[in-house]
Amino acid sequence: MSKFYITTPLYYVNDKPHIGHAYTCVVADTLARYRKLKGDDVFFLTGTDEHGEKIEAEANKRNVKPQELADGMVVHFKNLWQSLSISYDDFIRTTEERHIKVVQKFFQNLVSFGDIYKGKYSGWYCVPCESFWTKTQLKDDKCPECNREVHKLEEEGYFFKLSKYGDVLLQYYNEHPDFINPSSRRSEVINFVKEGLKDLCITRSKLSWGIPVAEEPGLSIYVWFDALLNYISAAGYLDDEKRFKYLWPADVHFVGKDILKFHAVIWPSLLLAAGLSLPRKVFAHGWWMAEGRKMSKSLGNVMDTDVLVKKYGADALRYFLLREISPGLDGNFSISAMEKRFNADLANDLGNLLNRTISMVEQYFQGVVPDSNQPREMDDQVVEDAVKILQRVNELMEKLDFSLALEAIWQFINRANKYIEDAQPWRLKKENSPALNTVLWTLMESLRIVAILIFPFMPCKAAEMYSQIGMDDKIEEKRLSDLKWGLMKPGISVRKGNPLFPRIEFYNHKE
Ligand code: MSP
């Protein structure tokens, strides 16, 4: 069994989570569940980023202490993750002692290695992005990343020798073409590094809400330096070396494209400075947009996740998020697109296949799954297609192409629907043909395979489906070997339940 360590970014606690945040967690959770299906020992980490000027400003606005703001927001994140079945193994908060002590020690170590030095910073700062910019980097005097106001900073502080790592990074990207995904983003990062890296200011003097630099109470550690280290502090760095050795390096860091540079440039440089190995992959996904703009709380164009979960169900929302966006590209969040997918893919294609099959087993075999006998060519073709689809899904999941993996599974679902039309079980029943047994067994076996395959994407609905087809074992314990064709046991009884995805009426909305 090999370990597989997956992370999401740590979410800022200045506000409640929205669809954009949910997306990163859903993607990471789907991969975590898929790797478990493959037999890996998965460690899936998420959490919250609780320090910095942005949080402090929001707390002041609300007239509460930053820690109180964080404590309250964490509840919203945890609740949403629970309702979306996010199966994280650890939730780290940057205000936890286990993290703070690693950040302080890491800082001191880099000072003693000569990679952190004292200097004077003069430049601009964007609070929403928690980023430093030079005058020339600004666009129309605004933040080049989010187009918002920046403010001037001039202060004594500590710098990290980022400039030292440009060539090493370029060599690393070159030798590890899979490190930055997707490849379009990879070239962006390479060009950025080729332009030359500047040393990074890693302390703030006027900020009080941050991890203090040990023995320099006037200074606190820059929030990104602090937050990035969560990936090692949660894995036991400087605390449980055995565990850390087992878990590190991370196998995939999932991040949004806005924070790729922090993960593909600054983070590896910090690790190199500390003599640690680099993560295997950083995957940058696109943004969820509304009316052509990134969804964000500050723009006021976000969808309320609680409302969406309540109306469509958590798994339907997961399906939409995973199916609608291609890896690395932006997606447009629209209710009408979601409702179309719900009715077409979930209620019709999958829901009907399950319903029709179970109803026929009830009607023709008193609910008991028949045995297959002398399969004909048309029956054998379903088996061949099932084998092909498994291979394809595996290839696509290796590439982290969740959307095409779902499309491939749906091809098989529709293949099975077509098989019903072609085989015409109602005619076989009339003719008293023994082929009826084979057709229904083949359909039940197809459903068993589909349930296991969709489990990583829609865990609750997959479990419901698995139970409806009469299976008694735990779907979450299934492994790739359970996807072998032929394991559906004749003689078990189906349990017809409520429709998995009752059709929804379209919202009355303008879009
Ligand atoms: N705190 C930092 C990350 C530190 S990781 C060591 C941060 N937090 S965030 O809350 O602003 O964003 C967290 C994640 O949500 C990022 O990956 C970001 O890209 C993602 N999203 C926020 N809005 C988004 C969309 N509208 N669409 C998709 N994802 C976006 O950055």
Automatic annotation (TrEMBL):
A motif ('HIGH' region) lies at residues 11-21. Its main location: cytoplasm. Signal peptide: none annotated. GO terms for molecular function: ATP binding; metal ion binding; methionine-tRNA ligase activity. Belongs to the class-I aminoacyl-tRNA synthetase family. MetG type 2A subfamily. It comes from Candidatus Desantisbacteria bacterium CG1_02_38_46. Residues 5-149, 154-357 form the Methionyl/Leucyl tRNA synthetase domain. Binds 1 zinc ion per subunit. Zn(2+) binds at C126, C129, C143, C146. InterPro entries: Anticodon_Met, M/V/L/I-tRNA-synth_anticd-bd, Met-tRNA_synth, Met-tRNA_synth_2, Methionyl/Leucyl_tRNA_Synth, MetRS_core, Rossmann-like_a/b/a_fold, tRNAsynth_Ia_anticodon-bd. It comes from the Bacteria. It is found in: Cytoplasm. GO terms for cellular component: cytoplasm. One of its GO terms (biological process) is methionyl-tRNA aminoacylation. Keywords: Aminoacyl-tRNA synthetase, ATP-binding, Cytoplasm, Ligase, Metal-binding, Nucleotide-binding, Protein biosynthesis, Zinc. The keyword Endoplasmic reticulum does not apply. This is Methionine--tRNA ligase.
